[in-house]
Amino acid sequence: MTRRSPIGSGRLLILVVLVVVAVVLPAGAALLGRDGKGSGAGPAAPPTSASTGVQTYPPGTPAKALRLPGLDGPEVDLAALRGRPVVVNFWATWCPPCVREFPLLRAAAAAHRADRLAVVGVLTGDRPGPARDFVRAHHATWPVALDPEATTATAWGAVGLPHTWFVRPDGTLASHQLGELSQSSLDRQLALILR
Do the Cβ atoms of 80 and 110 come closer than 8 Å? Predict the structure, then answer.
């Protein structure tokens, strides 16, 4: 019979504690709400995320359905964009990383107009009024869908904001990124869908 060393057991205990803390703290913050007051008032929304995580998908992984009312126009339907590369960005006006990455999305949409790149914003857990003002002030040229209760965000697996998916012209997923886009991460993921 082998005995565990006290040092090895101590390291295992520390690892377990760190994993539990890493899971419990974000979950607790999400339950308390984004304002930290724990009021429970207002729609549920994924927490904001300062970290980034990119996941790629094998060819043939279908994108989930996305069909929502538009902020200032017709219904936004991802299926209607089949044949075009699409960036689906879940965001909110109260999310600082979302606000910071907005100019990158605007520049990408303009730079890849000839590639027929479509950007779709999904306003998540936010009100239309502030979003309408923000979109006009920042000159967004793409449709914004309304997901006030974060139902579609949850169905897509958005666990924080911003959370961005890159969809190939055939309607399959290329990648997604949790957290703020940088120019380099945006360029790398656009290359996957603009072929």
Answer: no
